[in-house]
Amino acid sequence: MNFAKFSLGAFALTAMLVACDSDSASAKDTEIEELSSSSAVEIASSSSTIRNDSLSSSAIESSSSSVMESSSSSETTQSSSSSENISAGSVYDATAKTLKDLRDGQTYKTVTIGTQTWMADNLNYETENSYCYDDDPSNCSKYGRLYIWAAAMDSVGTLTTNGKGCGYNKTCSPTYPVRGVCPEGWHLPSTTEFETLFTVVGGVQDEDYAYRWNGAGTVLKSTSGWNEYEGITNEDSFGFSALPAGYRGLNGIYYYEGSQAYFWSSSEDGSDYAYNMLLDYYGDNVRLLNTSKSLGFSVRCLKE
């Protein structure tokens, strides 16, 4: 699959992205200079080992009691411990459609689209090399944190070793799925998993620009928070509720809140670039672009 390569610029980004959507422009050849009643509850324990590496592995959920899932098999065992007694891990409630990250106690909305279950909020787990837009903590509450790719992949291997050693100026061979910075039982999506999402929501891959899925953008974007653009109505038809969190540049300056949303994938493109999902305020499409690993983007986790 050929995707467009971008190194996002401080001032020229929006204009160039508009240009790359023009039918008369080839985004593949563009390179922008970077300035620099009973609920189904599932408990995942951080003491478990890595789950089956199959991207299509499914979880077994109990509708009557909390269950502890083994990360190395599909077997479940009854757990009499309450979630308060678990110092790390996660609790997924399929009925309430919520995910509780036991590392810091934060709760996120979730949504099932086709066979995939996604976080419907951006991840807000604080780790090194993650930031609040404009360095304002209130923006972390609103948008979640912005992570450089190494932080999103957990390149230091704090949580798992699947993404260890993956970072800027390095080419790595991650073991999929890559949990990365995500809660236990969830992982950073690959480009293939993003493509599945785009197709399920009705996106059609552009014949001329293979990195673009037309029609998928407006149905994935939140109905509020986005800058207005004539002819574009954001519908959030599936509850993915993507918010325009913008991004953090290499120079530590933040750009395009209200206009764009970027989400890291676990797929890299050589030593300096990795793929991300891009939504913008002026289009009805969604794109997969490869950009500098050192930029700060949002993270949406996918259930294993």
What would you note in describing this structure?
This protein has five helices and 19 strands. With about 300 residues, the chain is of the alpha+beta class. It has two domains: about 210 residues, no CATH class; about 70 residues, no CATH class. The strands form five sheets. It has a seven-stranded mixed beta sheet, with no helix packed on it. Strands 1, 12, 13, 16, 17 and 18 form a six-stranded mixed beta sheet that branches. It starts with a strand and ends with a strand. About 25% of the residues have low confidence.
Task: Summarize this structure briefly.
The chain has 304 residues and is an alpha+beta fold. 12% of the residues lie in helices and 25% in strands.
**SS strand fraction:** 25-35%
Q: Let me know the number of strands.
A: 19
Strand order of the largest sheet: 4-3-2-5-6-7-8
Shape: globular
How many structural domains?
A: 2
Mean pLDDT: 81
Low-confidence runs = 9-39, 46-87
Largest sheet: 7 strands, mixed
Task: Identify the notable features of this structure and list them briefly.
304 residues, alpha+beta, 2 domains, 7-stranded mixed beta sheet, 6-stranded mixed beta sheet, 5 helices, 19 strands, globular
Topology:
Layout: E1 4-5, H1 13-21, E2 41-45, E3 67-69, E4 76-78, E5 89-93, E6 98-101, E7 106-113, E8 116-119, E9 130-131, H2 137-143, E10 146-147, H3 149-153, E11 186-187, H4 191-200, E12 204-205, E13 212-214, H5 217-220, E14 247-248, E15 254-255, E16 260-269, E17 273-280, E18 286-292, E19 302-303
Parallel strand pairs: 1-18, 2-3
Antiparallel strand pairs: 2-5, 3-4, 5-6, 6-7, 7-8, 9-10, 11-19, 12-13, 13-18, 14-15, 16-17, 17-18
